Amino acid sequence: MTIYVVAVAGRSIVAFHAPSASEADRRVRDLDFRDDLMSLTTDSVALWDGVTAIEVRQAVPQEELRWRASRARAVRHGSIEAADETWIAFLVPLTDPDRAYR
Q1: pTM score
Q2: Whole-number pLDDT of residue 85
Q3: Distance from CA of residue 82 to its chain's centroid?
Q4: Nearest CA to 34 among 21, 18, 50?
Q5: HEC states along the chain?
Q6: How many beta carbons lie within 10 A of that of residue 29, not counting itself?
Q7: Predicted confidence band of residue 58 (pLDDT cuts 50, 70, 90)
Q8: Which of 7, 8, 69, 89 can bridge 55 by disulfide, Cβ–Cβ 3.0-4.6 Å?
Q9: Average pLDDT over residues 29-42
Q10: How many whole angstroms separate alpha carbon 30 and alpha carbon 27?
Q11: Are 13 and 6 in contact (CB under 8 A)?
């Protein structure tokens, strides 16, 4: 199982599984995926500005471990099935937009 990472401006943002590099590239070109990167924030700044180049590369061992640990927690909590390999792990903390209104 190969894990890939999306990096923006040299910062690793998201880790996910894909069967090949071309499939990883295809996933990152998906408009819904890109919309998510523009609407989700860390420290109230969008993960991607819609302009900066997006790098897709194979995860380094530490990033892969974070993806596997995150996926294992999701399986334990019943968020996904054990056979589901479509899990996406964010490698940066996401800002909770609802927190500002509490």
Answers
A1: 0.89
A2: 85
A3: 19
A4: 50
A5: CCEEEEEECCEEEEEEECCCHHHHHHHHHCHHHHHHHHHCEECCEECCCCCCCEEEEECCHHHHHHHHHHHHHHHHCCCCCCCCCCCEEECCCCCCCCHHHC
A6: 11
A7: very high
A8: 7
A9: 94
A10: 5
A11: yes
